[in-house]
Here is the input.
Amino acid sequence: MPVPSADAPVLVLGRRTPLARAGTLLDGVPVHRLLAPVLRSLLVDSGLDPEHLADVVVGNAVGAGGNPARLAALEAGLPLSVPGLTVDRQCGSGLDAVVLACRLAQAGAGRAFLAGGAESISTAPLRGRRRQDGGVEFYRRAQFAPEHLGDPDMGAAAETVAREHGIGRERQDAYALRSHRRALAAAEAEAFEDELVPVAGPRGEVRADNGPRPALTARLLARFPAAFEAGGTVTAGNSCGDADGAAAVLVTDPATAQGLGVPAGLAFRGAATVGVDPARLGLGAAVAARQLLTEQGVPVEALAAVEFNEAFAGQVLACTDLLGLDEQVLNAEGGALALGHAYGASGAVSMVRLLARSRALPPGSLLLAMISSAGGMGTAALFEKVAL
Here is the structure.
């Protein structure tokens, strides 16, 4: 099994905002003001000289454009010399931004990068297209695939995956309840405290996630009707909620990390991004992970920790079954079913969570992040904990 090279890029620190259900605690906070305090916190807490930053690489899916990575960098008070690059692979944007930063570091494009994702669904602009008569036709979401291939809504695609892979309602509900209970237990144990950066919201400072539901029970979940298809198994209870939030990590070369006094980090082993049928987009993560693990010669049993964005319980379980993945290593402290899905930020949230979980693991442990994306895509990234 290959080992990371001595100069492999390392992730040494991760921070995120609390994740707030869209339209609640962070309503009205634009995307760059969500991300800016995260960037500042990474610099302050790491002690990195901001002049050593080569770039800020940020994923975003439904913002207003204008390169929010650069806007957030300026809002954070970074030197004017530090540029910014915004990545859009829809739900995969945050993870792909981290992968891109690692590959830039591998290529010698800089010593240090801030990489992550940010999404303010609450402030996303209305979408409209010009009609020939000069009027405006508003639409709910962008087109992800040509009509002749099929471009189903996310929920309809989740129903297809659950049905074709035999993931029943009871199993989906049980997994959703697991996510909420694990997130609540983690919050009570203060497992999120070191990674959270408070954000000023319209009703005061936001210091904790508000997605996990203490009152949720199996009986309550069973009462939810099918949300996307008559007689279906996908409900609001076993689907993620939309969330506002931002997350980022510090990516450096090992020498820079050692200079910061960092005792350990996650060395980048590799990544894979694939395309799949847009009507079965939820399977993209499993296909990408299988390709990556095969290329790396890593059996799935060797993974010590996995973070997989929980857009829908059915697609998580289908991917778990396809990979033969032990659910005990998956999202050990809850996932998006409880915390919420902040679209372009979610893959970066997964990376922050992997960094946090790696603290309890020995050097040599392998960790995987994966996510499925609209349009029929998936990204997986493999890391190894290394002592610095």
Summary: The chain has a mean pLDDT of 96.
